[in-house]
From TrEMBL:
Coiled coil: none annotated. GO terms for biological process: DNA integration; DNA recombination. It comes from the Eukaryota. This is Zinc finger mym-type protein 2-like: PROVISIONAL.
Length: 256
């Protein structure tokens, strides 16, 4: 890597946005993160001034940075220190416990459905019933093995980077490729999509078929109420205590 490699800088900023926390491990405030990226942009513009134009907010190499910043800002707006809307995110330990539970295995239709529900929530910061608006066509395979989730009209969130900048760009939620030798979000989503009946409704989340010997999933979509209550159902199945907690599973951080 050189100091003037835009793609390398983009990947460093992508990782930075995901993991950055203040000293006591609390999350940054939205404006602090937003202003920090602006300051970094000014620093690199000065460094690049005798070479080529540099702009995190416009250059195509930094689309992954803008998309990740957008999703991260939404996450911080909702669950920053558990104060926004009383949201209480699942801890890393709770997420690991959930994914390792036998009833959340990708080897059964129920388990696979629950896993992709969790992955989508982790990567898009969705709220309850808004999962209903996600379509199978929104998932675009990336050359690196990951996925872009490209919602056509996403009115779920009126915050984030793109709303703050009044950008006309459509937000894209990025699911990075699984690490070598692991079976993560991309493995589960790829398997789930491959098991969709050809004549299924457009909705991403489908009902489980009564006869799973023929097909795991029905051609009909899963209802809004079922999706709204799915996270609580998962917590009950896996023994996660939800007492007096408004549970969300929003997180950009990688889960194993």
């Amino acid at each position: 890597m050189t100091l003037y490699d835009k793609k390398a800088i983009a990947m460093l900023l992508y990782e930075f946005i995901i993991v950055i926390q203040i000293k006591d491990k609390k999350e940054y405030k939205v404006n602090s993160l937003y202003n920090g990226i602006y300051a970094i942009n000014r620093f690199y513009q000065e460094m690049f001034k005798d070479r080529e134009p540099f702009n995190i907010h416009e250059d195509f190499e930094f689309r992954i940075v803008r998309d990740t910043l957008h999703t991260r800002m939404i996450e911080l707006e909702e669950i920053n220190n558990g104060e926004y809307n009383g949201a209480d995110p699942l801890t890393d330990e709770e997420m690991v416990k959930i994914f390792e539970h036998p009833d959340i295995s990708s080897n059964s239709p129920d388990g696979l459905l629950r896993r992709v529900f969790l992955w989508v929530g982790c990567c898009t910061a969705r709220r309850g019933g808004s999962y209903h608006s996600i379509m199978a066509s929104h998932f675009k395979k990336r050359d690196d093995g990951g996925y872009n989730i490209v919602p056509i009209h996403d009115k779920t969130h009126q915050g984030g980077y793109y709303y703050q900048t009044n950008s006309n760009q459509q937000p894209v939620h990025i699911i990075p490729p699984d690490e070598p030798g692991t079976y993560g979000a991309c493995h589960d989503i790829r398997k789930y999509l491959s098991l969709r009946p050809n004549n299924a409704e457009e909705n991403f989340f489908l009902r489980i078929n009564k006869d799973i010997e023929e097909n795991w999933y029905s051609t009909f979509h899963l209802g809004r109420d079922k999706l709204f209550g799915m996270l609580k159902e998962i917590c009950n199945i896996t023994g996660i205590d939800c007492t007096n907690r408004k549970i969300v599973n929003h997180s950009l951080r990688h889960k194993s």
